[in-house]
Design goal:
Layout lengths: L4 E4 L5 H10 L3 E5 L3 H10 L5 E2 L3 H4 L6 E4 L6 H10 L3 E5 L6 H14 L3 E4 L6 H11 L6 E11 L8 H17 L5 E7 L9 E7 L5 E7 L1 E13 L3 E5 L4 E5 L2 E4 L5 E4 L3 E3 L7 H15 L7 H19 L5 E2 L7
Parallel strand pairs: 1-2, 1-4, 2-3, 4-5, 5-6, 7-10
Antiparallel strand pairs: 7-11, 8-9, 8-17, 9-10, 11-12, 12-13, 13-16, 14-15
Helix pairs in contact: 1-8, 4-5, 5-9, 7-9
């Protein structure tokens, strides 16, 4: 039996969800309050009904699930309304704008026994999944540090800063790779185009096991770079999401007989991984969860963990890089 879903929001990112769910034969209706969004919906999926009235979605008994791709400031209220109407929900990142709001949504989903999924699309990227596989199998040895760069010129937003726009992807991946929350976060940001809206941020995460992670994001950069590097005690891995290449380096540093550190350099070897559109895999995962009632990889609890780190990084930015301890929470 096919799952019928509604899409709320058909703009810059929503049109991609519309295309994917339509190609999976799961899209029943698109809702967008703006005329431009409705026009884009008509152009993207001409055969799908389009409405500007949210009640057409909330009151549809034959539509059990909803995907939300609207501005971040609308997420809390829209997710709440959809959950209260008995719908399963996939919402684009971030889950909400505060950890406290996120907790309310996760608890509501639990009370209503609904699926709540957050669109951390890179967690479904086959290249990232291959990196996770290498780390889990011990191929890299003990992870020492991770860095992630997400850089480009635009798309520049006015309603959220670069940390909240780009970094959720990197935070989600790093938390999954390390398997725990950091105990300390620090971050710096620079606002060059719009007052109090950083265009560039550098975030540092420190974990109990000694691993450090560094996240550099910018929409004010001369070229596009989306790169994840994991440094291990035995090998090093680099995934470039622009060139779609995963390179495993047989490189490490050992102590020689005199106690001096000696680098061991080896050739990099390209690692093959399946080719699949991450958003298509994310869309399939949502439909699978709706059908099986099993939680997705990027469930509400994982969205909350990302939200907590974002909130601590934001606090650090406004206090000029002060180190912020990540307090324990119900879903941390």
């Amino acid at each position: 039996m096919s799952i019928h879903i509604a899409l709320i929001g058909c703009g810059y990112w929503g049109k991609n969800l519309a295309r994917n769910f339509a190609q999976l034969d799961a899209l029943s209706i698109i809702c967008d309050p703006h005329e431009s969004g409705r026009a884009l919906a008509d152009a993207t999926v001409p055969t799908c009904p389009v409405t500007g009235d949210l009640d057409d979605v909330l009151q549809a008994d034959d539509i059990p699930a909803v995907a939300i791709a609207t501005p971040a400031e609308t997420h809390f209220d829209l997710v709440r309304q959809c959950l209260e109407a008995g719908k399963d929900v996939l919402v684009e990142k971030p889950l909400a704008l505060t950890y406290e709001e996120g907790v309310r949504l996760v608890r509501l989903a639990e009370r209503k026994q609904r699926i709540l999924m957050v669109g951390h699309v890179l967690e479904y990227n086959p290249g990232i999944l291959k990196v996770r596989e290498l780390v889990s199998a011990g191929e890299l040895g003990k992870v020492r540090y991770i860095y992630s760069n997400r850089l480009s010129l635009g798309k520049i937003r006015r309603e959220e800063n670069i940390l909240w726009s780009f970094a959720p992807h990197d935070i989600a991946i790093i938390l999954r790779l390390i398997g725990q929350m950091p105990f300390e976060v620090s971050a710096f940001g620079g606002a060059y185009l719009q007052a109090n809206i950083p265009d560039v941020t550098v975030t540092n995460l420190l974990f109990d096991n000694g691993v450090r992670a560094h996240i550099f994001v910018s929409w004010l950069h001369p070229f596009k770079e989306q790169r994840l590097v994991v440094i291990g005690s035995r090998k090093m891995a680099s995934f470039d999401d622009v060139s779609k290449k995963l390179i495993l380096y047989d490189q490490r540093v050992v102590m020689n007989n005199g106690g001096a550190p000696t680098p061991i350099k080896g050739d990099g070897q390209e690692v093959a991984y399946p080719t699949a559109e991450p958003l298509r895999e994310e869309s399939r995962a949502f439909l699978r969860s709706v059908a099986t009632r099993n939680p997705p990889l990027t469930d509400g609890a994982s969205g909350l963990r990302v939200l907590k780190v974002l909130q601590m990084a934001q606090r650090s930015i406004v206090t000029n890089g002060a180190r912020v301890a990540v307090a324990e929470g119900a879903y941390a």
